[in-house]
Specification:
Oligomer: single chain
Distance between the termini: 103 Å
Number of helices: 6
Structural class: mainly alpha
Largest sheet: none
Length: about 150
């Protein structure tokens, strides 16, 4: 589709207006048989919603109000994060609901054992020191006795 320079200059001579056919339309002659074209309407600009939005934007601009202080990207990212957190919470709730009775019972027993261990630690903390020392002596005496027997 590359034209040699000589052909290009011939085209330029034939059409002195630069080859643009639309610059001199035929209906300027005043020929009554031809239908004169009308300018096409832009369907977007003709729609009511577009006109109302444009009017609202003009009013806000006149008042000096900005649309929003946050950029669109930041709003979208925050919306995605919020949706992700909601999904995670729903999944956790569903996982809790789907636990088998066996798993629930194991969890209860584990909690009870933890509670008993905490209570024993509290009781040991409140015991007099001589009882703690006596228990340590018993442990060491059994260890040393076992070592002698071996």
């Amino acid at each position: 589709s590359f034209l040699p320079a000589s052909m290009y200059t011939e085209i330029q001579r034939e059409r002195p207006d630069g080859g643009n056919i639309l610059t001199h339309p035929d209906y300027i002659d005043g020929n009554p048989d031809l239908i004169k074209p009308k300018k096409l309407l832009n369907p977007v600009k003709a729609s009511k919603s577009h006109q109302e939005l444009h009017r609202e934007l003009l009013m806000n601009h006149k008042r000096g109000l900005g649309m929003e202080s946050k950029p669109e990207l930041q709003r979208v990212l925050e919306h995605r994060r919020r949706d992700l957190l909601i999904k995670q919470k729903k999944e956790e709730e569903e996982a809790k609901k789907l636990q088998s009775p066996f798993e629930k019972e194991l969890l209860k027993r584990h909690q009870r054992l933890d509670q008993l261990e905490k209570e024993q630690e509290k009781q040991e903390d409140h015991a007099p020191e001589f009882i703690k020392v006596k228990e340590n002596l018993r442990r060491t005496s059994t260890v040393t006795g076992d070592e002698k027997a071996a």
